[in-house]
Design goal:
heterotrimer; A alpha/beta (about 120); B mainly beta (about 160); C alpha+beta (about 700); A: about 120 residues; alpha/beta; Rossmann fold; 5-stranded parallel β-sheet; 5 helices; about 20% strand; globular; C: about 700 residues; alpha+beta; Four Helix Bundle (Hemerythrin (Met), subunit A); Alpha-Beta Plaits; 5 domains; 6-stranded mixed β-sheet; 5-stranded mixed β-sheet; about 50% helix; CheW-lke_dom (chain B); CheW (chain B); Purine-binding chemotaxis protein CheW (chain B); CheW-like_dom_sf (chain B)
């Protein structure tokens, strides 16, 4: 069973994603509410996958993505974006994010992205 | 208001007060307790005899005889406290004894005659007549209304 | 949409937090309109709200936040300046959002007619866009779609002579030329980012020669859902397809080998150096994209980190669970009392030690549980700046609200209750206290009035004070009105000091319906305010200097539930006197008591203090045993600067008890604030000594 680290500053969003993932037999490695927590938790839990919100306090998702990839080049990170963040998503993909999903989340889309990245 | 079973029956608890039998719907009753220590509360209506510790909850206790203006008597082994469910807090009624629980057909409930056993009509919901027994269904909300609250209810 | 009820609670909680953040930062922004970093925070909250609202299917909410976000974005990028009008519209939007969240929290569907507000937001955007109109339209013209979409039975692509040459050359060098038609899912939201990913995937295994529509249009999303990419690669057709399919939100991929021979090429006149160029175009474009993304991000970053919100490691616990925990603990405290009693009776060393230890631990536990229930008063205070802002606009007054001590903590039960009465008091200060600017100036005061709301901690109490520099209270008016409305008689009035006279304003019957204004009245008088604080175990006093201002001071207990009492016995009855009210206990000889004005008093440390005989007031039965005693046991209690001695039969000792309510049926018992269950299971009443001091 693959483990996923969920990163989003809104616990509501984390709950949504967590719910989708657990219903599809994924393990939740942890939840982080900002970029720094994400980096720390990644090092600690070494998850198979990360869902990473872009807009977060302290350290945003792209900075966290870059930091994680620097230490773990094989890390699989899916960005969670909102409409209107195209350039940031592209920046993230450029930096090495594997995929992105757009809010509002829909379960099938999230799973599609996750399965493609894991597959 | 009366909760009726499928075949038009109402489940009631029948209790004794002086010479009469009265009934309260089972749904209104939380539990039936033996008489226990009640702490007096100063400066309240005489029929409020105080509060008791009912499993950690402070519960007011009313003497139903006093509430109805019937003559008082000492509490004994048969004395029971009927604990009624209220929205916020429970309230105990002291009665002479709790006799039994029974189903009565809605058709057996008749309108109240003016006075039953000295209890004023306003507290009564109806009279139940069975072959060998007669008892009165009580109106819980009316009993709980304190006299001065009637005036204040216009607020 | 997925099942939502389970998320609703979290949604509401978090939305309310974001609304608060919005309000707080908007207030800051209004004070410092040039500080764009604040806008970053505001934007982020609006943005999150939008996402959450859309996810939950609250369309009006999402719609409104979307427009709000657009306006904030313009401000953030310094394309719009923060004027008072802009702030008004933004505040109005936040009001709407609040209404919607409140509706949702109350079980509603959160729908609301937001058209008016949205129009205002749009007007702001449009006004702004007019300025940039010229350049915008010019740019749009260049970017507009150039080609109609192609029909897609098979992958259609045409190549000019130059492209053909490139393809042919690569073919000859052992590369396969492919044309790939890709169709994105119709619901794809960030199409350009998807295109970017596809380009990225393809570039890992080959070179992109051409795309239709061209890369520019793809990036600007000037296409529907399909596009064709021509690529040269060394990998197999099927592998290429699988690689593209790894990108999500793609519904179809068709890969065909380009027949480089077909339309006969004319000549090989192009130079090889030129062949590199088209393949480079996409990456070049990509770099630009990256630059813009970077600048966007760094801007955002500086905005976010400047005054980053503090995110502690916390978990959310439903308040009901805390209440259950508290109740369980209360039962434990009762048993602890019982155990202490048994152990003292049994006099067994091991037992006493264990019980002592357990008592200590439960004491620590009690502190932790009580602390968990503590919340900063900011929870209540934070809505006041907005309220003051709109109220002063409404009344044409200029008021500055100063808040201090918002971090002071109180039990959440108290926090829950004090909001409305404080609103009332603040409204009162602004409505009746602070004068119109011209009146103030005429009186030699600054035009802007000041209301200072402060909270501070003192002993077992928290004080909340509302001080204004307004007109103050007219003592004569209070006296006149009190007499008119029968709140006080002339005789009593003579004995009263100023503070007591002002206190008459809290008496029930003081305010009459006619003079309750829209603002501070709301149909209730100050007596309701006083009642609320008193039910919480607190009190309120007011002081004022006519012409200079007033000070309302509210005293509240830190926590409601567990209190320290002195247990006393009167006849066979036990009562608890809260330690907070006790000055000291004393035993006096009966012959020290004398009468003054038909009142029994004693001389206590140089003060004449009245005695209150609890056995008389409470009509305690069975007091034979106490009659022969030569001494009185006294509990000296205070209320403000007044002192009285409560006469009891004996002092039992100090106990930690759990204060329980007598319930709604017994809500107004004189001089009794509640009850507690003692170690032996008996109920003891807790005195409200304030009611006994006149």
């Amino acid at each position: 069973m693959a483990s996923v680290l969920i990163v989003d500053d809104a616990s509501f969003m984390r709950m949504m994603i967590k719910d989708i993932l657990t219903k599809n037999d994924f393990d939740i490695a942890g939840e982080a509410a900002n970029g720094q927590e994400a980096v720390d938790l990644f090092n600690e839990t070494q998850p198979d996958l990360v869902t990473m919100d872009i807009t977060m306090p302290e350290k945003d998702g792209i900075a966290a993505l870059k930091e994680i990839l620097q230490q773990h080049p094989g890390a699989k990170v899916i960005m969670c974006s909102a409409m209107g963040q195209q350039s940031m998503v592209i920046d993230a993909i450029q930096a090495g994010a594997k995929d992105f999903i757009v809010k509002p989340f829909q379960a099938d889309r999230v799973m599609d992205a996750v399965q493609k990245v894991m597959g | 208001m009366a909760v009726e079973t499928a075949d038009g029956y109402v489940k009631v608890i029948v209790f004794q007060l002086k010479d009469e039998e009265y009934a309260i719907e089972v749904n209104d009753v939380q539990s039936i307790e033996k008489m226990q220590t009640v702490t007096r509360i100063p400066g309240v209506e005489p029929y409020i005899i105080g509060v008791m510790n009912l499993r950690g909850i402070i519960t007011p206790v009313l003497d139903l005889r006093k509430r109805f203006g019937l003559e008082s008597r000492d509490y004994d082994e048969a004395t029971r406290i009927l604990v009624l469910k209220r929205d916020n807090s429970d309230i105990g009624f002291i009665v002479d004894g709790a006799n039994d629980v029974m189903d009565i057909a809605a058709s057996n409930i008749e309108p109240t005659p003016e006075v039953v056993g000295g209890v004023a009509e306003e507290y009564l919901r109806g009279v139940v007549k069975l072959e060998d027994r007669l008892f009165t269904l009580l109106h819980i909300d009316k009993i709980l209304n304190k006299p001065e609250e009637k005036q204040r209810s216009g607020m | 949409m997925m099942g939502q009820s389970e998320y609703l609670e979290v949604f509401i909680d978090e939305s309310q937090e974001h609304l608060q953040t919005l309000n707080d930062h908007l207030m800051q922004l209004e004070k410092a309109p040039e500080d764009i970093s604040i806008v970053g925070e505001i934007f982020r909250s609006a943005h999150t709200l939008k996402g959450m609202g859309a996810t939950m299917g609250f369309e009006d909410l999402a719609h409104l936040t979307h427009n709000l976000e657009n306006v904030l974005d313009l401000i953030r990028h310094e394309q719009m300046s923060v004027t008072s009008h802009v702030m008004d519209v933004v505040f109005e939007s936040v009001d709407d959002l609040e209404e919607m969240i409140t509706d949702i929290a109350g079980g509603g569907d959160g729908s609301r007619d937001v058209n008016e507000t949205v129009q205002k937001l749009e007007a702001l955007q449009n006004k702004d866009q007019e300025k940039a109109a010229a350049s915008e339209t010019a740019a749009a013209a260049v970017d507009s779609p150039q080609k109609p979409m192609q029909e897609q039975t098979a992958v259609q692509e045409s190549y000019d002579e130059y492209e053909r040459t490139v393809l042919k050359q690569s073919y000859e060098q052992g590369y396969n030329p492919y044309k790939i038609e890709i169709t994105l899912d119709e619901q794809t939201m960030l199409k350009a980012a998807r295109v970017y990913m596809i380009f990225d995937v393809l570039e890992q295994v080959g070179d992109i020669i051409k795309s239709t529509p061209p890369a520019d249009d793809l990036e600007d999303e000037n296409f529907e859902f399909s596009f064709v990419i021509t690529v040269i690669s060394s990998v197999e057709q099927e592998e290429l397809k699988q690689r593209v399919l790894k990108v999500s939100e793609i519904t179809n991929v068709s890969v065909e080998v380009v027949n480089v021979e077909e339309p006969v090429p004319e000549a090989e006149s192009t130079s090889p150096s030129n062949a590199e160029e088209p393949a480079e175009s996409a990456p070049a474009k990509k770099d630009e994209q990256k630059e813009s993304a970077k600048s966007d991000k760094s801007e955002k970053h500086s905005g976010g980190s400047k005054k980053g919100s503090e995110l502690n490691k916390t978990i959310r616990v439903n308040i009901d669970r805390l209440d259950v925990l508290m109740n369980l603990f209360e039962e434990l405290v009762i048993d602890r009392g019982r155990l202490e009693q048994i152990s003292s009776e049994l006099n067994n060393n091991e037992l006493s030690e264990t019980v002592e230890r357990m008592s200590r631990i439960s004491g620590d536990l009690q502190e932790i549980i009580l602390n968990m229930r503590m919340m900063p008063v900011d929870q209540v205070f934070n809505r006041f700046p907005r309220m003051v802002r709109s109220l002063s606009k409404e009344l044409g007054k200029n008021v500055n609200l100063e808040i201090s001590g918002a971090e002071t903590e109180l039990d959440r039960t108290i926090i829950d209750e004090i909001g409305d009465p404080l609103v009332h008091l603040i409204r009162n200060s602004i409505d009746h206290g602070i004068e119109q600017p011209d009146v103030r100036e005429a009186a030699g005061k600054p035009a802007q009035g000041n209301v200072h709301l402060s909270a501070y901690h003192s002993g077992n109490n928290v004080f909340i004070e509302i001080e204004d520099d307004g007109n103050g209270i007219d003592k004569e008016k209070v006296i006149k009105k009190s007499l008119e409305n029968g709140v006080v008689n002339e005789e009593d009035l003579e004995k009263m000091n100023d503070q007591q006279i002002f206190g008459l304003m809290f008496a029930s019957g003081f305010s009459t319906a006619q003079e309750i204004t829209d603002i501070s009245g709301r149909g209730v008088g100050l007596d309701v305010v006083r009642n609320t604080f008193e039910t919480l175990g607190g009190n309120i006093t007011v002081n004022s200097v006519y012409g200079e201002g007033s000070l309302f001071s509210v005293q509240l207990p830190l926590t409601l539930s567990i209190i320290d009492v002195m247990l006393v016995e009167i006849g066979k009855e036990k009562y608890g006197v809260p330690l907070t009210a006790i000055v000291e206990t004393a035993i006096v000889n009966k012959n020290e008591v004398y009468s003054a004005h038909a009142q029994k008093v004693i001389d206590f440390r140089g003060n004449v203090i009245p005695l209150v005989f609890l056995n008389e007031i409470f009509e305690v039965p069975d007091r034979e045993s106490a009659k022969g005693n030569e001494y009185y046991s006294l509990v000296i209690v205070s209320k403000g600067d007044k002192i009285a001695g409560l006469v009891v039969d004996s002092l039992i000792g100090q106990h930690d008890v759990v204060l329980k309510s007598l319930g709604s049926y017994l809500s107004n018992v004189f001089a009794i604030s509640g009850a507690t269950i003692l170690g032996d299971g008996q109920v003891a009443l807790i005195l409200d000594s304030n009611a006994l001091i006149k």
